[in-house]
Amino acid sequence: MLDSTHQVIAGVVLLTVIGVAYGGRFVFTAVTGRFPANDLQKSFFRAGHAHAGVLIILGLLVMVIVQANGVPEPFATISLGVLVAAILMPAGFFVSVIGRDPARPNRAIMLLWIGAAVLGVGLLAAGVGLIIQGVTSAP
């Protein structure tokens, strides 16, 4: 069972899925030509939307597994980076192609790479923390 802090985090994250669903509607309008977007924008919008959905699910899963197994600090807190990546990576995809007919991503693409690094660190912390907890609690 999640503690009260993580229950609030999970509730907020689940509410963000409403935004992801609305984003899917936006992606649909762009891909079908109802919103003017070039091929780069369309592909980045698709990628941003997909990453948002997948990383939210992964982040919630990691949070529940870490909490359920009593992963020690600082690993438990650092593992929340997976949820932070669920914000940074899609933002990098969407914001980096804002504008009229961009030929390439702008500097905001760095959000994608920062998010990828945060994702890696969060997953590393979760994995190492689970292993440590498993080894130290073994009979």
Summarize this, please?
Helix content is 75%, strand content 0%. By secondary structure, the chain is mainly α. The radius of gyration is 17 Å and the shape is elongated.
Helix content: over 70%
Q: What can be said about the biggest beta sheet?
A: none
Shape: elongated
Q: How many helices in DSSP terms?
A: 5
Based on helices, strands and strand pairing, what is the structural class?
A: mainly alpha
The average pLDDT is 95
Keywords:
139 residues; mainly alpha; 5 helices; 0% strand
Task: Outline the structure in words.
This protein is mainly alpha-helical and 139 residues long. Helices cover 75% and strands 0% of the residues. It has 5 helices and no strands. It has helices at residues 4-31, 39-68, 75-78, 81-95, 110-136. α2 (39-68) packs antiparallel against α4 (81-95). The model has no long low-confidence stretch (mean pLDDT 95).
Topology record:
Elements: H1 4-31, H2 39-68, H3 75-78, H4 81-95, H5 110-136
